[in-house]
């Protein structure tokens, strides 16, 4: 019951607040009515102002109906339309205020209805509470009158029976219960009195708030009235200013019109002159396209002629430049031959699927379109240029590469020592260039085929013997690839004939007489060479391979003997252990390979700087190449590079090493030829027959050849010896 009473008291407080808002709503309605009346009055005044403006416009347009200068009038009309827009904005503000007053009126009506309902409910609740209060008071009065009787009954029943005692106990418990109920009712009554006091305080506070809201509403209404009055004054002031300004401007327009009329009278001659000039210009403009087309046609002809002359000049210059480039290259090659420089060719392999995809597999090597001896490397964002003796792009074939080296190979037949070795990082294509494949052979097999072809061409005068040896340097050990025991280690020693040449005792030599013999030798040696798979190359060469071709020739007519040696070297590739993933025996092999290549670099540095001591014996590789690098051989280095971006560091090192090798001068090359025992009388007869047509011999007409005297024969023998010595 106490909880329900609390809820009802809260509802009553809400109803009281609603009633107070309704009481204030009557004043709001009064203000609304006042605002509506004021709005209606302003509308009427606005309509009157509009009619006055229309009348003014008609009055202003009447005298100027025939005037040609209506621009000022249009400007005044724009000003009037601007004033009308301002009036429309004022009207819109009044409509917004009207809507706001209407909304407040609706809210006040709702509050009034709620207040009436709450007042009725409050009256009913007060009636019910008053009835319960009267009942409680009657109950309390009756209970107050009962206790003396109970005491008396208790005293008199003390001597009665057990039933009476039981009834007495029940009565006592009932009395106690009633006393508790009375206490509870008193407490509830006290709480209700407190709630009534708090509701009265709340009612006083709400009345104070209602009065404050009414004061704020009156102040807002006053401000709105003041703003409307100020807007109306501004509107009237603007209309007056516009009207006065229009009158002043109309007067100025009339004055300007008079001045314009006088000016028109004076400007008529000038107008005739301008019309004549205009007609002349019009004729010129009409003829201008034809003149322009003619001028453009002649200009195009002159420009095209100049461009054609420039193109012809450029073609002539390019032709001369290429001719001079070929001449310079020819002179350079001759200078290299005379100085004994190591010739350096570069070959760039194509991008393969093993290089992967993405930025790391991008092409970092470019070529010069006009100079086939220059290439460019893009390393860490910078372009580095290198100049070699010849550069082969990725699309160059094995045949094109061999055409550049076949002159060196054929000089082997004439008794010169020739060395061709391939250098570069692992996976750069060294073995492919030197050995090739069965369908597309490399330098090794093509060189021997060329030697056989040259030998067959000279078979009428010369007897040649071609022998082939194959060896490899594996972990600083020299092994015979054609021997029965390839694991046997060989040693390099000086020739006992005192020539200073090096040879390998016990190295197997096979005499080859046909291409089939070559293929057998290559297949037999290739099977025994050490190759393994690494992270950088699936078939990585783990040793330095050397193919030694010895060509011995005998001139049957003169007894001249020549010995030429062709060393074809496929060096193992330099590699970084971290990238190749070499471990165990692969790691030991990589260490020996890098050590021997480092020793080769030391030898090149010593030769380039012309040091007194060249460390050939620091490695088996450099010791075996001593004959080729010490000025007694024609040497060619084929540097192989990879164009992939991820290998740019290794490519840079290889190309720098190639430039250093190219600057090494070994001196002029000597020919290995010796004159054997002097030929017999039969040989001399053959020589005499061959020399019969020489200018020194004479024959009488109608007779045979005269037999030379012993003096003449001895002089011819001496001349032959001088020729052989000169050719040697």
UniProtKB/TrEMBL annotation:
Compositional bias annotation for Polar residues: 709-718
GO cellular component terms, A-Z: adherens junction; centrosome; cytoplasmic vesicle membrane; kinesin complex; microtubule
Stretches assigned to coiled coil: 2-146, 189-241
Annotated localization: Cell junction, Adherens junction; Cytoplasm, Cytoskeleton, Microtubule organizing center, Centrosome; Cytoplasmic vesicle membrane
Top-level lineage group: Eukaryota
Binding site for ATP: 424-431
Gene3D superfamilies: Kinesin motor domain
Major subcellular site: other
One GO molecular-function entry: microtubule binding
Kinesin motor domain residues: 341-664
Role noted for this protein: Minus-end microtubule-dependent motor protein. Involved in apically targeted transport. Required for zonula adherens maintenance.
Family statement: Belongs to the TRAFAC class myosin-kinesin ATPase superfamily. Kinesin family.
PANTHER family in the record: KINESIN-LIKE PROTEIN KIFC3, KINESIN-LIKE PROTEIN KLP-3
Protein name, per record: Kinesin-like protein
Organism expressing this protein natively: Alaudala cheleensis (Asian short-toed lark)
Organism lineage string: Eukaryota, Metazoa, Chordata, Craniata, Vertebrata
